[in-house]
Amino acid sequence: MIIVILAGGSGTRFWPLSRVRHPKQLMSVLGGKSMLQRTVERVLPLKPERVMVVTNRLQAEETVTQLASLTAVPIEVIAEPVGRNTAPAVGLAARLAAATPEAVMAVLPADHVIPDEEQFREILRQGESAAREGNLVTLGIAPTRPETGYGYIEVASGSAGKRPFPVLRFVEKPNLERAEQFVASGNFYWNSGMFLWRADTILEELERFLPGLHQGLMGIKVSADGTASGKHIDAFYRDAPSESIDFGVMEKSDRVVMIPASFGWSDVGSWSALSEVLEGDDNGNVIINAAGEVLADARGCLAYGGGKMVALLGVSDLIVVETPDALLVCPRNRAQEVKNIVGELQRRGLGEYL
Question: What is the DSSP string of 131-158?
């Protein structure tokens, strides 16, 4: 198995703590090691043949530094010159992995929380077997609530006896009413964004659905050991389209199957999601990185104190995040919209806060 970790995101929904040069995956959101370090350590017991971490040039130096102590298997850090969404990153990794005949790639985001790591590795082993048969395998998470922040995967009714499940369709993030219908039906799973496939299989599908991207990939000169020069990678990215692997391939291919998984997964996609993975007080308040806390008639709040004393009085369902140069205050039910703040900062040319 070849592990490919996608680690180039900027974590805009975790602003102002997450920044372009030091995004969520490079942070110790839960204390201790960073999310990237935890992601790599999680797969090392599988004894992968290779581990490739695809990031961008702004984050490459810190990525290399954080992974320097993990020496159980060589870790290759591949720096994209510019962000082009996930399809070019996946395609590049597949082009390099194809140097190993019939290599199976496990493509994993760098910023997920997975408490049951042994179950996670067992699911990856199942996915590896399904991928060897020429399938595009996605991991679906059994939903625990009608979540509007995740995409969904629909499988056929009566799929419970089949593993992996045939996939009917992918559905973008729904409103609350549709999410409730999805969960009630029993045929929908959260889209985890984790995939397994043979390198040659995904390259075939890229040629089928994204022929321009595939042509660019074939122009990269790959050595016998599965590496390529920065010059060839830069040339590929100059013309590569910005496209997600979900929309570009997975939503169109007839080779997609899903393996259901229940290993306590969270993509920690926003500040409000931290309450899923961190224990709060009796009133549902979660306080992080604070010198101390005084909470009076406060309920359901999440506060990142930036090393300062946190005091909350008579408030409920708020997110408060303090950093040296920025302060965020918003309702918890609008945590997904924090990325809009980042967009507005970009629009105003306030790059020093990005």
Answer: HHTT-EEEEEEPPSS--SSS-EEEE-TT
* Strands annotated E in the chain: 2-6, 50-56, 75-80, 104-109, 136-141, 152-155, 165-171, 188-198, 256-261, 286-288, 292-296, 302-304, 309-313, 318-323, 326-331
**Mean model confidence pLDDT for the chain:** 93
- Sequence-ordered alpha helix ranges (H) in 308-347: 338-347
Integer Cα distance of 195 and 261 in angstroms: 12
Condensed to tens digits (0 to 9), the pLDDT of residues 174-221 reads 999 999 999 999 999 999 999 999 999 999 999 999 999 999 999 999
CA distance 341 to 15: 8
> For the chain, how long is the longest CA-to-CA vector?
64
Among residues 246, 242, 237, the alpha carbon closest in space to that of 109 is found at: 246
Percent residues over pLDDT 90 in the chain: 83
First CA to last CA distance, the chain = 36
Q: Residue 38 and residue 265: Cα distance in Å, rounded?
A: 14
Q: What is the Cα 353 distance to its own chain's centre?
A: 23
- The predicted pLDDT at position 147 comes to 87
- The three-state secondary structure class of 160 is helix
pTM, entire model: 0.91
Asked if the model's pLDDT at residue 162 lies above 70, the reply is no
